[in-house]
Amino acid sequence: MIIVLRPHISEEDLNRVVEQVRELGLTPHVSRGVTRTIIGCIGDEDLLREAPLLSLPAVETILPIEKPYKLAAREFTARPTHVALGAAAIGDGGVHVIAGPCSVEDRPMLRQTAEAVKAAGAVALRGGAFKPRTSPYSFRGLGSAALDMLVEVREETGLPVVTEVLDTRHVALVAEKADCLQVGARNMQNFALLTEVGETRRPVLLKRGLSATLEDFLLAAEYILARGNPNVILCERGIRTFERALRCTLDIGAVPYLKQETHLPVIVDPSHAAGRRDLVPALAMAAVAAGADGLLIEVHPDPDHARSDGDQSLRLDTFAAVMEQVRDVAAAVGRPSATPVG
Amino acid sequence: MIIVLRPHISEEDLNRVVEQVRELGLTPHVSRGVTRTIIGCIGDEDLLREAPLLSLPAVETILPIEKPYKLAAREFTARPTHVALGAAAIGDGGVHVIAGPCSVEDRPMLRQTAEAVKAAGAVALRGGAFKPRTSPYSFRGLGSAALDMLVEVREETGLPVVTEVLDTRHVALVAEKADCLQVGARNMQNFALLTEVGETRRPVLLKRGLSATLEDFLLAAEYILARGNPNVILCERGIRTFERALRCTLDIGAVPYLKQETHLPVIVDPSHAAGRRDLVPALAMAAVAAGADGLLIEVHPDPDHARSDGDQSLRLDTFAAVMEQVRDVAAAVGRPSATPVG
Amino acid sequence: MIIVLRPHISEEDLNRVVEQVRELGLTPHVSRGVTRTIIGCIGDEDLLREAPLLSLPAVETILPIEKPYKLAAREFTARPTHVALGAAAIGDGGVHVIAGPCSVEDRPMLRQTAEAVKAAGAVALRGGAFKPRTSPYSFRGLGSAALDMLVEVREETGLPVVTEVLDTRHVALVAEKADCLQVGARNMQNFALLTEVGETRRPVLLKRGLSATLEDFLLAAEYILARGNPNVILCERGIRTFERALRCTLDIGAVPYLKQETHLPVIVDPSHAAGRRDLVPALAMAAVAAGADGLLIEVHPDPDHARSDGDQSLRLDTFAAVMEQVRDVAAAVGRPSATPVG
Amino acid sequence: MIIVLRPHISEEDLNRVVEQVRELGLTPHVSRGVTRTIIGCIGDEDLLREAPLLSLPAVETILPIEKPYKLAAREFTARPTHVALGAAAIGDGGVHVIAGPCSVEDRPMLRQTAEAVKAAGAVALRGGAFKPRTSPYSFRGLGSAALDMLVEVREETGLPVVTEVLDTRHVALVAEKADCLQVGARNMQNFALLTEVGETRRPVLLKRGLSATLEDFLLAAEYILARGNPNVILCERGIRTFERALRCTLDIGAVPYLKQETHLPVIVDPSHAAGRRDLVPALAMAAVAAGADGLLIEVHPDPDHARSDGDQSLRLDTFAAVMEQVRDVAAAVGRPSATPVG
Known about the structure:
4 copies of one chain form a homotetramer. By secondary structure, chain A is α/β, with parallel strands linked by helices. Chain A contains 11 helices and 14 strands. The mean pLDDT of chain A is 92. Chains C and D meet through helix 6 and helix 7 of C and helix 6 and helix 7 of D.
């Protein structure tokens, strides 16, 4: 950590900062420049991170040097993490697609969707049982009944299932039934929930919060990793910006940036970013071309009558066509082709 | 709700939209303009809110007319809501200040702070027991031991206490001990938590999320109101924008806007917005001048050694000076003066 | 335009609004809903756009129906606009790449770059003569000497040249020398400049402003079109958001959105969005996969010694490799292959 | 400037960076920490600012230490700059108000407004002659005819006039007629215009761009100062964020931050931030309470028939009432009272 001092400070002010750094158990190195003096602090940066140095009168800025995340950092491990989801290993270099309805509405629609997405090459089925909704008056999912339908459909189709968990009290139940626990964008900094899913060993699909920086995002993953669960899949799903033409702004640059910063797999959800079915394929292709390890796509057999997110759900036949193009784009950027059909 | 159709659509496409509106139980009114046709939908807008109309090929945009929140809307009640906090009634026209340390560190510091803020005119004591922290390696509060200290200090000073709750499993415990439950910015859309605090009758201090629109904010309040708890205090604490000179951008315009839109009291937290002690007083004065019903301020007897948020915590004497100025500014904008000293 | 009235307004208030609409030359249609009354206004929406209706006490919101841009709208013309740049037609369905140095530093480096990008398949050469710089102390380009170098290198290589114009007083000069005038992001709403380039018939490469909505962007294009210059190329180059890991957030969703909204060609500048050389290829591929009509890429024969933007400029050999992959990705999304080599 | 290297780099990579720093004429100081090595660079930071160091493989981040602005920095001068505007000195500690119509529509309305705002205590008259408009179809001002009206009304009332300049070609004309040149938000990084107004000695009212960081803002001021014109007034007028309930988000924290960072006066425009008349007074009071040196307010004798910005213009009587409250709030925060009436 570098402490930048204000210009023209007194020796006394300087000494006060130096002393406080020593009190914190670190070794200060003072360098006097032409106009400004800076103090480099050698030692465990975590000791400094919470120290209130910024409000010392002599201090202008604090420049952290170390990344605040450790287990999530690329340097932590030599090889990319593979997260097993049924037969697929997310992060193995292939482009893996998880697809399914926003919410589980009934068993027939779930089964029909599962069979169609499997036939088109998806490696896992998504389906909401507990739904986070902006309005308290919206449909909030079928809850544990939906979990049972997911289990049944997994048995019938062999597709592993991904579903969201909203409440610390449901983690054990959802972890028992589902193959992968989704933590939604609005819960990305629900630290109690992160801690709790970190206690399981189930894969966790962690969505980026609408205003989470990539550093915040990796720190949220760190919460899970720090509890001993190494199976974290990061999912970029669009951030909130001044632009409202689409529902969110898909931060496509996050994909190559995260691939450099972390060993964790990175997938993209084009459906929530677009908010409109017709723009989903273009965003999906962009994600694959940018180097994503996979996609999370909303699909519905009859989107016009979906109970939630119908506007952004692809029809089954469109999804199959998108999967064809995903394979072509993946090949064009030198990715081992996505899971083949059949 | 108004459905705006794309230019030059066919009769068949138009009929498909009209039919779908009818299926949803609403009455469509078609108006043909020079270049565009629009459909006004009379009836319960909630029926339409989730309907996937946007993805019909003929539909260009959906313009909602009704506000999605009802209980939180100004029209719901004739008079501003007063939320009782000890002897104070937040929302009664006065400017009420809640102050205290970021986290409860031990009993002596809590008591010292409580006595000082009470003497300076604060109406309640804040103090974190369970702390949400961006990094899993940061100090996360003393938990239930801190709750007990808050109870003891309330008994000694008479100041009601406000503390944050992070986990649905802790709501009953915190509601038993504290006078007011804080829901933090990062949990503003933790819908499970909102529902749970809505089941209590304790006042809830709801902080605006970093990327929450004011509509999202009011919908989060609606979750609590809809469960039967009318005691919601809204707290603007800065939003996340491109500007990073201060920690957050205090959305001062939210204050007069919310005062128009809702009957709920609106307070401002200048400490988290500034992130730096020296800028807190200016933001506090701005909030009062803009019409806030109160302030939430971090105060610490020795900020240089605080375990969290030391940089933004006011010293006890600075806080007392700020309170003097709060009274003057409140008077200047015609607010019944803040709770007087002694 | 729809005028939404506040709930429970008086007849008198309603009549005042109706009257004002009539005064403006429009026909009001009043519809009374269960809780709110709305007024549909038939006629030229432009008459209403500037009218101060929002501040009438009875008015809650104004919902525009018509798009404020006309000439730029998709409906204005049946076919996509092709903008001729040398032998290439930007917007013809192919993926066309414009490349070159941030600033023209001297003739040898310009010629070397031009030959290399031409060999790799670029259709035009970019090169800055007048440079907009955030700091007044930065290198601001060689000015008209650089224009002359661009002309010479065009003669030698046959590559048309694109260069930025910053000042209304330079438009005639730059239009005389260059094949395409770039209007930079920071001048996207320099309306005097837009008007002036609209008076020429030179192609204009219009970059999106850092905080311009897509509607603002199309209105800026409209300024140019409205002066009679139909040759506008839109260029997405990243917007400013809270995320600062990359220099800007490339709004990849803008590509498919603009392709629907307008007949104008849409290209992407991955260099300024990334701000870092190593992330440029991933963003370039994403742009092509999302449907962009072309790319604008910074290339330098020796980026480590570039006078500006060295960090984000590709080396000549990397550029050639990127071009190979651009062709593959273009093919994968069914675009007629980019301009072939040789 | 501090160069932070990636972990585990080779000696060779380290040496390459050290060498490049030396080539740039600076002295590198290498410090080896536990996991990371950093290089402190002593000397003129400007030499490094443009050097493409970030793209060296060994470099992780560049941390600037010096501020990029010099003349605008607080340290440049011992005392706050006073900008003379008629009899008032903006920046002298008082709260000075500039008011007038968005655009000059005709002489009677201008004179009526001038007299009213003068009577209420305003120190200068604003009025648009050349108007920047988002749409090319909007009213763009009366141009030089309006300048003449401003001159006439100044003669009649004694109020100095502030008007916007949009085009480098108009700077001489506007500087001849007006007392203060406004550079609008959308031209804040129109560097040609900044340079040109820097060549005059007229006071410049520089508005912050919608997506300008405070550093960008001060660098824009630096352009003007660097050309020899010391008379710059900074004006915060709201930034663009995800929140669209008000037209812009007034960045109230910018006021105390800028007052620390620069010696230049800082005023606030609550009218453009709010976009709605009813919210203007609250924002105006917040600005004064936060420490602004003045306000820029849109006022119109008949806002319902204004040719532009009618929605946000105050009526003359409301303005007078606002001025009363401005004086009270200024007094409450210890500011020498605003220019008194009469």
